[in-house]
Amino acid sequence: MNNQKKNAIIVSLHDNTSEIVQLSNSLGYKVLSEFIQHRKIPDVNFYVGSGKVEEIKEFINNNNEDINLIIVDGELKPSQWFALEKSLNVDVYDRIRLILAIFEERAERKEARLQVKLAQLQYERPYVRELIHRARAGEHPGFMAGGEYQVDDYYETIKKQMKKIKEDLNKIRGDRELHRQTRYKSGFYLVSLAGYTNAGKSSLLNILSGEKVKVEGRLFSTLSTTTRRIKSKQANIPILLTDTVGFIEDLPAWIIDAFHSTLEEIELADVVVLVVDGSEEKEVVEKKLQVSLNELYDLGVNASIIIALNKIDLKNNKDIDNLKQYLNQRGLLKDRACIPISIKEGINIDLLLESIYESLPQLTEISMKLPINKEAQSFVSELYNKTRVTNIKYSNYIIIDIECNAKIRDKIVSKCMSLQGSIL
């Protein structure tokens, strides 16, 4: 993308424009002005009233700097989009198209690019139908400010492209399922990081795994899943941690569906850690936590959910306690573990890990008695790698107590017996 700053105007039906401004900046646009018109129902023709459109047009004509984009903080109907572009003679993005443009810029891996393209095509379909209608009515619009198109042919191309992309994504999904089954059979638990975009999920992945996954302080910097193993001195239960695409308010169901192959990592997780920026105003935290929980419900998540309130280094203890009490009163915490953490300062990371361990399903305990020989020592090393060793004692024998995934219990017992050991 061209790094030169471009200029935009925000159009909104409400005063709370902080998120749409942040989204605009994230795509490289400088917001020169905001035009607010308080109304519950968008104008059927222009989204805002014709008088507000004239006010915007006057600002564009009299402004010393070029206006490159009009950004509407809402979802436009195709007819509204067409009317605005025609009247203002400037490219117009609604909130969904702006997010899709950010997705396109952020997508690096093949799967992410395919998912973004599928979402874009799904978005374009009703707009293409509008252009077909107008072309047949005698108008000759360009497509999405991109010049003249044979829109009839393009509509058919969209359908063919969508079919092909879905086939490619299904293949990737199948490959991921094979990997997931292999991990399960090896005794790995799956923990997913979820939450509102830019809450700190990728940074948490790094601190829990000891890795250095790229972290950027911008919206939707993660569009593909990244999986790493949790590293901890306290316990060595094999846990794979997956970072996923961030949530955001009012995303249409068809965008969620386009990213299904990525989001199913959350759906199938054994535990979900829901990361929330706890440094924001309590009403903002409440809103973003509610959006995230709604998304998890819509995905069909049945796993334990741990809420990690991040960035507590920016608040005092009293404010943190008040925030937790406020969220609990709003019914958002219920019986869920809520751990205040600071990824930046490393505060309460051990508490979060302990909460993850305690939330894992089907942990089973095994006590074994092993002979002291080379093969048994090798087995003990394997146990440290694949289970949580809670106690070990050497005398004439090795007595070892472990906790492990129930899926590998029989395999461990069988190995113990083959070494002339016994289960206590």
Q: Short description, anyone?
A:
The chain is an alpha/beta fold and 424 residues long. Helices cover 46% and strands 19% of the residues. The longest helix is centred in the middle third of the chain and has 35 residues, at 151-185.
Helices and strands in order:
Elements: E1 6-12, H1 18-26, E2 29-36, H2 50-62, E3 69-72, H3 78-88, E4 92-94, H4 95-106, H5 110-136, H6 151-185, E5 189-195, H7 201-209, E6 226-229, E7 239-243, H8 253-258, H9 260-267, E8 271-277, H10 282-298, E9 304-310, H11 317-329, E10 338-340, H12 349-359, E11 363-370, H13 374-386, E12 388-394, E13 398-405, H14 409-418, E14 422-423
Parallel strand pairs: 1-2, 1-3, 3-4, 5-7, 5-8, 8-9, 9-10
Antiparallel strand pairs: 6-7, 11-13, 11-14, 12-13
How would you sum up this structure, described in words?
The strands form three sheets. The protein has a six-stranded mixed sheet, sandwiched between helices. It has a four-stranded parallel sheet with strand order 2-1-3-4, with helices on both faces. Strands 12-13-11-14 form a four-stranded antiparallel sheet, with helices on one face. The chain is elongated and about 90 Å long. Residues 143-149 have low confidence and may be disordered. The protein is built from 14 helices and 14 strands. The chain folds into four domains: 6-105, GTPase HflX, N-terminal domain (Rossmann fold, 3-Layer(aba) Sandwich), CATH 3.40.50.11060; 107-167, no CATH class; 187-359, P-loop containing nucleotide triphosphate hydrolases (Rossmann fold, 3-Layer(aba) Sandwich); 363-423, Alpha-Beta Plaits. It is of the alpha/beta class. Helix 1 runs parallel beside helix 4 (95-106), helix 4 runs antiparallel to helix 5 (110-136) and helix 5 packs antiparallel against helix 6. Helices cover 46% and strands 19% of the residues. The chain has helices at 18-26, 50-62, 78-88, 95-106, 110-136, 151-185, 201-209, 253-258, 260-267, 282-298, 317-329, 349-359, 374-386, 409-418; strands at 6-12, 29-36, 69-72, 92-94, 189-195, 226-229, 239-243, 271-277, 304-310, 338-340, 363-370, 388-394, 398-405, 422-423.
